[in-house]
Amino acid sequence: MRYSDFSQLVDEVFGRAFGRTLVREQVLPRLGDRTPDEALAAGVEPRDVWHALCDALDVPEDRRWGSDRNRQAPPPR
């Protein structure tokens, strides 16, 4: 997953305004108590950040991929 894919999914799944707020402010224990922005800046793969964010917010699997049902990131390692 590329950074642009991550941003697009955030906008599609959470809505642009709320999604951007989540990325800046939602602390994710699975990512070392960092926000998604902090984790990405530290070099964490966007795919891993996406899964951590969705897991923390209990996003159902069928809603994680936005409007493109063929788009899926592999599960975290």
Describe the structure.
This is DUF3046 domain-containing protein. The chain has helices at residues 3-14, 16-25, 36-41, 46-56. The model has no long low-confidence stretch (mean pLDDT 89). The protein has one domain (3-60). It is built from four helices and no strands. It has 77 residues and is mainly α. The protein is globular, with a radius of gyration of 11 Å.
Give a quick summary of the entry.
The protein has 77 residues and is mainly α. It contains four helices and no strands.
Helix content: 40-55%
Secondary structure: number of strands: 0
The mean pLDDT is 89
Structural class: mainly alpha
Structure characteristics:
globular
Draw up the topology in text.
Elements: H1 3-14, H2 16-25, H3 36-41, H4 46-56
Helix pairs in contact: 1-2
